[in-house]
Amino acid sequence: MFELFTCRYQGFEPAMGTPVRITLSAPRWTLPYALEHQVREAAPSREYFGSPRPDFEGAYRAQLDSFGVDFFGPRFQEIAVAGRDLRLVLLCFEDLAKPGEWCHRRMFATWWREQVGAQVRELGPLGPAYEQGVLL
Fold it and tell me: Which domain holds residue 91?
């Protein structure tokens, strides 16, 4: 069974798993990794893309509900088999380390957890509030 993670395009590294595009357009710069898989149905629609967060989130969740787990689950499994890696990393553009920044990849993560009970962790550099604990 596959496991989902999220990250931004700029923070992804191939050792993290199989990259999966969930944006309408691909990055306009050259990526240092192959981006062979996409799930357009998980990308937000242009109809509400510029909306305030509450409106965006409501419309995006309605979009996800219209496809449902019965669509996304098999699609993710196909990608895991094709990519020969059960770790799928859903990618978009936003840098969540910036205060006040939000994105649909984390909305998808919350929706997925609510639907199937599986946690979807964000990968990438640690934020500025991180402090390593004492080991000994």
Answer: 3-122
